[in-house]
Design a protein that fits this description.
glycoprotein; disulfide bond; mainly beta; 2 helices; Thrombin, subunit H; Peptidase_S1A; 28% strand; 8-stranded antiparallel beta sheet; Peptidase S1 domain-containing protein; 6-stranded antiparallel β-barrel; 279 residues
């Protein structure tokens, strides 16, 4: 069985305002509808392996996502040309003039990604055609470079259902929720089988009431923004409001240099490349 969290399967209609949820109990609880231009770097990717995964626009030619979002069940990189990147989207069910859709061209997965612990869970996708800037709906993210203090309030932006239950309609509108940065050691003590390493950041419900504000599987890869800067990508601890499994993010400030290096690469990893094969 794949170690990756299950992803939300969305059935999109050209004129639908809601999207039916296919997997049980997946939601984006305690969130608020986003407005146009509020999170202009937020995007999502769709592929044969991963029906939907969060992504973030980095510049005209690249988006950032999780390594687990671009690997198949045997940890091999999926064909980038089968990946669609959607940016400028507020409502998943509507095709609007603001939407910019691009096909993937090259995928660069962090060479030290570890599937068992989800360390270095990060990847860069180069798209075939550049995004159009400037745009009120699509802009590159500002990336966090400094540490975020415990107790700081940040915003997680993504898509998902807004009520609990085994089968619910997913609100197709982009939504956001406030999450508070937690002490890393305290998060690790709650979940010893999946510790929170230094290059991760833990935020959200550790002691909230069940079904409080919390992301679920449909939020995998969504961006955490602190003071407007992209600070993390949701990697695990997608807890649907349960206790003892706080949301945990790949912490962007540890990867800024690696991200910049990917912009300059001219090589194309071989088909089916696996970061687990790298010594």
């Amino acid at each position: 069985m794949s170690p990756y969290p299950l992803l939300l399967f969305l059935v999109l209609g050209a004129s639908a305002f809601v999207v039916k949820e296919q997997l049980p109990d997946e939601r984006f609880l305690g969130s608020t509808d986003a407005s146009f231009g509020q999170f202009p770097a937020a995007a999502y990717i769709v592929s044969p392996e991963r029906q939907i995964c969060g992504a973030t626009v980095l510049n005209e030619n690249h988006v950032l996502t999780l390594a687990q979002c671009v690997l198949n069940g045997t940890h091999n990189t999926i064909n980038p040309r089968l990946v669609r990147v959607h940016a400028g989207v507020l409502n998943l069910g509507l095709v609007s003039a603001s939407r910019q859709t691009r096909l993937g061209d090259v995928i660069y997965v962090h060479p030290n990604f570890k599937a068992h612990s989800l360390e270095n869970d990060i990847a860069v996708i180069r798209v075939q055609e550049p995004f159009i800037f400037p745009s009120n709906e699509v802009e590159p993210a500002l990336r966090r470079t400094r540490i975020v203090a415990n107790g700081h309030s940040c915003l997680l932006a993504g898509w998902g259902a807004i009520v609990a239950g085994p089968v619910q309609d997913v609100n197709a509108l982009q939504r956001y929720m406030a999450l508070t940065i937690n002490d890393r050691d305290m998060c690790s003590s709650l979940r010893r089988e999946m510790p929170v390493f230094e290059n991760m950041i833990c935020a959200g419900n550790m002691d909230n009431a069940p079904n409080g504000p919390a992301p679920c599987q449909g939020s995998l890869g969504s961006g955490l923004y602190c003071d407007g800067d992209l600070t993390g990508l949701l990697s695990f601890g997608i807890n649907c409001g349960s206790l003892g499994n706080p949301p945990t993010f790949t912490q962007i400030r540890f990867y800024n240099q690696w991200i910049e290096q990917q912009f300059l690469r001219n090589d194309r990893p071989p088909p089916g490349f696996s970061p687990l094969d790298v010594a």
